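During the first year of the project, the team set up a workflow for recording each protein of interest as an amino acid sequence followed immediately by a discrete structure-token representation. This format lets reviewers and collaborators read both layers of information side by side without switching files. As required by the reporting guidelines, we include two representative entries from the current panel. The first entry is reproduced here exactly as it appears in our internal archive.
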Amino acid sequence: MSKAAADPLLTARDLHKHYFLGGQDLHVLRGVQLEARENEWLAILGASGSGKSTLLHLLGGLDHPDQGRVTFRQRDVFAAGATQVNRYRNREVGFVFQFYHLLPELTALENVLIAAMVGSSMLRWPGTRRAARHRATDLLGMM
């Protein structure tokens, strides 16, 4: 196995996250470690309130850890600033939310295409629309 194939695609190292609720410090994540390799499927299990969604938000760049690192392809997700985090979320991460978050007036395909539209300029979109639609169809097929 080559070195590149052995490297994790996504890592979490010593992740900590806490929130202040009702005057109390609620420490949700305490030193979480995780490695995921390309084409690997993982399940995050735990009781309600155990930090599963918080962990996914950190891995997906939706929230910043209080301590620790998230890396994607050996690059720190949060080190380069907001523009790079936004690009990471738009191009590398996909979320399928359990409840709301989908626009009911759109088809499933249109809901998936929204991310590609947001990541493209108005001038570029007509030239990339066909490829984006094909990719969205493939992603829905995998789900």
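The second entry, processed by the same pipeline in the following quarter, appears below.
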Amino acid sequence: MTQLAPRVADGIVVSPPLVTSATAHTVAADALSTRTTAHWARVLVRRLVIADAACAVAAVAVGVAVRAGSDDIRVYLANGFVVAVAWLISLALQGSYEIRRIATGTREYQKVVHAGAALAGSIAVVCYLVNLLVGRTFVAIVIPSGVALMVGTRFLLRRSVYRHRRRGMWSSAILAVGTTESVQHLADIARRTPEAGLVVVGACVEDAAEGDEIAPGVPVVGGVASAAQMAEELDVDVVAVAGSGMGPRRIRELGWALEGTRRNMVMAPGLTEVAGPRVHVSPVDGLPLMWVDQPQFSGTRRVVKRVVDILVSGAALIASAPVLLLIALAVRLTSRGPVIYRSTRLGQGSREITVLKFRTMVRDADKIRAELLEFNECDDGVLFKMRRDPRVTRVGRFLRRLSLDELPQLVNVITGSMSLVGPRPPLPEEVERYQGDVRRRLLVKPGLTGLWQVSGRSDLPWEESVRLDLYYVENWSLGFDFAIIARTVSAVLRRRGAY
């Protein structure tokens, strides 16, 4: 007996009953009529096209209102209509309406910007060739405002897509092909990030028996050689070749077998936790070679990061001065002890640093901690977490919810012991319990905010917070920093994991 994998039916991932391999094709054929992957994809693309059209019309309306006079309003309206239509065509040519690019990564936004730039260039060329007069001010207003509106609507649409996918809807079914280890890794990533809309529903491997469940909800449905057949029987959307479980000949034959079907084939290499900017692909005699740049821990970009740290933290410190004074007064008047709490942490290169925070606990809270270890809610043995820590004062609880207690760390950023963005600054006793590659967190300066803070903060398990910090260390960039800072505002307002 074989347990067919969960699949996407009516937009929801469901688990079918036990069936034999002989009846698998019948079950898949029966489910084919209820599959809505193509339907939700069409719905999503249609919504996006309508939203883009509305944004283009709104941008044109703004341009007409600002630029057009009573005599030439008809000309501007006609030109605006052409611009709106051309804009949608430009977006389509950029691949903005390909379902695999919608609600995934920052390239979706980049394509909107590229489409706007291409449209502006096309307008300039056409006007020059046919001697058509279109106001430069009109174009200068319409294109930037339209791009901004389209990026905003895509962001809102992405939130809606994520909500659907977290409920098991609007997802693509995947058949993973490779080794047990590589399939398990792929299934773990898909399960950890439901927003990606990828659900591994079965595996074709050689090192496990058919019917074995090698990951939660992922049974072995056949060997590597039967991947194309099982993709047809299970009616999956994507066949993912994970790791190095197949040779080049088998991969090529699998691609040929999938020709003419609506199924896509993707390659999931064993290289993980490396972001796109560090990866470059160059073909050599038909063989795509993946070049991986070394992570940057020094050099010009680090100098630029330091300059940005000083400028931004200095401006933030000046702007928040009234708030800092009010917080200091509240801490002083409501509990005994110093206003500023100084904590010894380890920074870049395991050097000791003194991290500044507004005091949120009672005096001598560090001494009381030993009495509370039995109530530790973190089972990893490294961190200490309590949602209802009795040492936290009433004012301190409020400050922690909004992360206001960490504002004095702007001074740490200015003095150079910390950065605006980076891994969490660990305690010395935590570092003593670090094992394996966890120490790589200390290769860069700790940050006032970071990837783990904007991804769940104290709600995250230890392993996940380490994974996020290491991902940041390996893939740091200025653009990544600005994206994390922008997400910090949302994370603080949601107050998730703040205690």
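For the second entry, the following points were noted during internal review. The chain has a mean pLDDT of 81. The first strand starts at residue 2 and ends at 3. Both points are flagged for discussion at the upcoming steering committee meeting.
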